[in-house]
Amino acid sequence: MQNPYAGFLDAQRSAWEQATDAAKKLGAAPDANETITSVDVGETPSEVVYEENKLRLLHYESQTEEQHDVPILIVYALINRPYILDLQPDRSVVRTLLENGFDVYMIDWGEPSLLDRSLTLEDYVVRYVDNCVDEVRERSGQDSINLLGYCMGGTMSSMYTALYPEKVRNLGLMAAGLCFAESGGILELWGDEDYFDPDAITDTFGNVPAEFLDTGFALMDPVENYVTKYVRFYENMEDEDFVENFARMEEWLGDGIDVAGDAFEEFIEDIYQENKLYENELYLGDRHVDVTDIDVPVLQIVAEYDHLIPPTASKPFNDVVGTDDVTTMEFPTGHIGMSVSSRSHAKLWPDVCEWFEERSQVGEDAEADEDGASAEDRETDEDDATRDEAAPDGVSGDESGEASDEESGSADVDVDDGAEAATLQDVDGIGPAYEDRLEDAGVTTLAELADADAAALAADTEVAPNRILSWIEQAEQLHE
After folding, report:
1. Which of 55, 280, 313 shows the shortest CA–CA distance to 173?
2. Distance separating the N- and C-terminal Cα atoms of the chain
3. What residues contact 462, with CB distance under 8 A and at least 6 apart?
């Protein structure tokens, strides 16, 4: 017979547990507040090696005894501060490049004053970027250098390379807005000339206020930006690492800068509304930005879940540039996640560094690498031939090895009395796309999902915490 008081007692116990949890979180609030106010960003040591107007060119201290011959100049957007690329030591694009032997520079645009309202894209690309490139070329002794442009900085880096291909050795583009012909992005829709007139903004304010831009970006995902992230913060106030990461991101999000009026008008009208860069119709002053003159190796780094610059706003550009040496790396993360998520630094950036490293040595070093690679290739070919000879007729060495593993029962598969093992997709709400995200975050089995930390997994997969918690609960039941 069911105890008639069981339901009441369970509800009372649940209420006590919730009250205890709330008290613990409130007790952690002062420490969390202190962490938020004292957090540091952009900690990698650097020096200012060139200044012009509000612009500062930063040169970072090397982290290795030897550096690759060709340095990297990072060109960030005119919106927000560039230290998103150096947000914290273990998730810093700048530090990752340094630790992989690169000589790294980055442009800090500063904030334009009212006197800078008339700065145009020509000023930023033909004057400012070109002067910084020349400074890096002179300091490094190289005729051409690597460019790595992020977001709007990638768009401007493409313009620059089209105008000065002889000064650019390799062009890396991160989430760069390059093609706006029904790309499906929210910004393209909002910026459509039928709905948005940039002149109305600049006629009112002069320079476009940071607050105006911040509000617009936040409204692209209002539930996440105004509700979910604060719920997630409340749930993790006792986790100092989470609080520090949250504080750094909030510091950057709240540290926006105004955008020069004329440059803003040009970017919206010429790039978004009329798609002139992709259509090869863009002019800066009287100079044609001919994208077919981009004849250097190009690396496109795109984020699969980018709602600001979706992949369709970047990848079509590969078909209109003048080079056939184009590489695309598409990674399951968001616009900001590609620079700050732990998954990106574990899996994406090693490939990016390898791409630049292969193309960042000159003279005798490059020839030595080519000879070494050839010798290595020959050794690999010889090993493959030996395996093929030892394998059964009609089966390659690799296939033979796989067959042996299957025959011996050593395949890495969970088996329960011959029944088919449950997989991640047996969890309600997890389909192939979410399964890929979980696997990229290191969660490949139900056991790993059941043991996962909900807050950390939500951050790594960019999935709502409540959904992650539901998956974990289901995984615990399925794994029992």
Report:
1. 313
2. 27
3. 305, 333, 334, 337, 341, 437
Question: Residue 226's pLDDT is what?
Answer: 47
- Catalytic pick from 151, 258, 262, 293? 151
What DSSP string describes 221-248? SHHIIIIIHHHHHHHTTT-HHHHHHHHH
DSSP code per residue over 134-174: HHHHHHHT-SSEEEEEETHHHHHHHHHHHH-GGGEEEEEEE
The DSSP line for 37-100 is HH-----S-EEEEEEETTEEEEEEPPSSSS--SS-EEEE--SSS-GGGGBSSGGGBHHHHHHHT
How far apart are the C-alpha atoms of 159 and 99, rounded to whole Å? 29
Q: Where are the alpha helices (DSSP H) in 164-228?
A: 186-190, 198-205, 210-218, 222-223
Q: What is the pLDDT of residues 164-191, one digit of tens each?
A: 999 999 999 999 999 987 655 555 555 5
Report residue 348 as tokens: 């994406």
Give every CB contact of residue 302 below 8 A, 6+ residues apart in sequence. 175, 309, 311, 314, 315, 328, 329, 330, 331
Strand order of the β-sheet with 145-150 is 46-52, 55-60, 104-108, 72-75, 145-150, 168-174, 298-303, 326-331
* Beta bridge pairs of residue 147: 73, 171
Q: Give how far the C-alpha of residue 210 lies from the chain's centroid of Cα atoms, to the nearest Å.
A: 22
Contact 167, 144 (CB under 8 A): yes
**Which residue in the list 86, 335, 345, 440 is annotated as catalytic?**
335
Model confidence pTM above 0.70 = no
Neighbours of 39 (CB within 10 A): 17
Nearest partner of 437 among 341, 318, 320, 366, judged by Cα: 341
Neighbours of 317 (CB within 10 A): 23
Q: Which helix (H) or strand (E) holds 327?
A: strand 326-331
Are the CB atoms for 163 and 289 separated by under 8 Å?
yes
Residue 151 a catalytic site member? yes
pLDDT per residue over 199-251, tens digit each?
888 888 889 887 766 665 554 455 454 455 556 665 666 666 666 666 666 77
The per-residue pLDDT for 16 is 53
CA distance 292 to 290: 5
Please identify which of the residues 306, 353, 440, 460 carries the catalytic annotation: 306
DSSP SS3 for 423: coil
What is the per-residue pLDDT across 78-90, written as a single tens digit (0 to 9) for each?
A: 988 898 999 888 8
Q: Which of 271, 10, 286 is nearest to 151 (CA)?
A: 271
Per-residue DSSP letter, 269: I
Residues 6 or more apart whose CB falls under 8 angstroms from that of 55 comprise: 107, 108, 109, 110, 128, 132
The CA–CA distances, whole Å, from 12 to 3, 16, 24, 26 equal: 15, 6, 18, 21
